[in-house]
Amino acid sequence: MENQTTAPADADRHPTRLNPTAGKTRRELKFNELTDAVSECERLLGSGYVRNGNWSLGQICRHMKLTIEANMHGYPTWMSILGYPLRPLLRWLVLPRLLSGHSPSGVKTAPMFVPPMDLDDATEVSAFTACVLKFQSNTGPLHPHPGFGPMDRDGFNQFHAAHAAHHLRFLEPAVEDSSKSVGQQCDQSISRSRVTLK
């Protein structure tokens, strides 16, 4: 699709323009935890962004909110049944790539996690932020991922953070920023050994 530039929330203060690096399909982006993803969403909301993929900031935030809520409240039974036989392969082959920031793109998303069109960015960033706060304060059990299986709380935090980075890397800040993104400022090494699989 063609690159699209989205105006920032405070467009009068930050005029929207094409990012000089808009030709890149995706940028390097890694988060250590979900709060880093929230900070990056707020940064993109304030700066405006060039969309190099299929989803807007609002759609990405809605998608992430839906997946985190499923982790807290449960996935459909059919999804877990289909994913269970593939878990050994997915945990060995795909999960390490996702956590290291090299996850494959173009993987088909389950319909229940596909966000609708024409979502308001500011509203969805706010809802995603609230969802992350609920995830952090949640003391109940977390449901096993259909494909990757069970993880401890820290493992799921890193998984969701990596998942968010996978999608947000397709959005380029439209206003030049002398500072690096949150994901670039923090320690970017997310090793497989840090995720405890049950």
Descriptive account of the structure:
By secondary structure, the chain is mostly helical. It has one domain. 44% of the residues lie in helices and 5% in strands. It contains 8 helices and 3 strands, in the order E-H-E-H-H-H-H-H-H-E-H. The protein has a 3-stranded antiparallel sheet, covered by helices on one side. It is globular and about 45 Å long. The termini are far apart.
- Helix content estimate: 40-55%
Uncertain regions: pLDDT < 50 for 5+ in a row?
11-23, 177-198
Q: Tally the helices: what do you get?
A: 8
- Taken together, the total number of domains comes to 1
| Alpha-beta classification | mainly alpha
| Sequence of secondary-structure elements | EHEHHHHHHEH
Mean pLDDT: 81
What profile does the largest beta sheet have?
A: 3 strands, antiparallel
How far apart lie the N and C ends?
A: 40 Å
Query: Within the largest sheet, what's the order of strands?
Result: 1-2-3
- Bin the strand percentage: under 5%
Rg for CA atoms: 17 Å
E-strand count: 3
What shape does the CA trace take?
A: globular
InterPro entries: DinB/YfiT-like, DUF1569
Protein name: DUF1569 domain-containing protein
Organism: Novipirellula galeiformis
Region (Disordered): 1-24
